[in-house]
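Appendix B: a complete holo record

For completeness, this appendix reproduces one full record from the ligand-bound portion of the collection. The bound molecule is fe (ii) ion. The inputs are the chain sequence and the ligand SMILES; the output is the full three-dimensional arrangement of the complex, encoded as structure tokens. No fields have been trimmed.
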Amino acid sequence: MSEFLQSLRNKINTRRKMTSPLYQTVLSGNASKRLLQQFVINRFPIKNHWTRNILGIASRIPDHPIRTELVENVFEEETGYFSKSKRHLETFVDFGKCVGVSQQQINAAPLLPETKAVIEHNIEACNTEIHFTAGVASVLLLMEGQPPVVTNENKSMLSVMKDVYKLPEEGYEFFVHHASNVELNNGSFAAVSELEEDHAATAEKILEIYCNTDELKIQALKYLDRAIDRRHAHFDAIYNLFYDASEPPFRFDEEE
Ligand SMILES: [Fe+2]
Ligand SMILES: [Fe+2]
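The structure of the chain with fe (ii) ion bound, as generated:
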């Protein structure tokens, strides 16, 4: 791995999702119904732009095989075709429904300024005249190259949703397709699901080929710093506004 890629990877790893109190709380099984609802409401608008962000990058990639990898990623996202599931965003809304939030409520909720800042960053980096390598580093690699979201005991989002929050299958399907911890037969753990490993590899390939001047590399690093800052501000806003430790943790099977 080039020194440049390594420095991007280091930034992502140092401030990975699991360093945020929001994800730590959800993973600990202590999230209240209100926090899980607000998690869905406030994460949805960013996820709702995801495929358009990737397409903005793809539309500017001259190399056909690499562009095809991005198009396949988007096609799966939009349809669930390869995983024989459904549109990924729809499975996220299904998770929302199981914690008592509807698509109407999601659509009607005002955008937090911290959420707006993430969306604006992602659009600027992927869908404007800014060189696409800024988007690949600060949106594509940042999302696809996340280290596993797991507790110290190696409990994944999927296992917590299933075993602790007791969600039914339609509620945890999103986490099946976005699993970040796969226990292998030999007892070791794969970094991420196979699907996601490929996606991160595509992002790295694009950077190796096209992020080839000092100017572009500096820009990519700067955009990645900004993206990480804004993402954590967004996670922290959700946590600070909607989590109160005195509220009982959500359990699907105890709902009336
Ligand atoms: Fe997805
Ligand atoms: Fe992915």
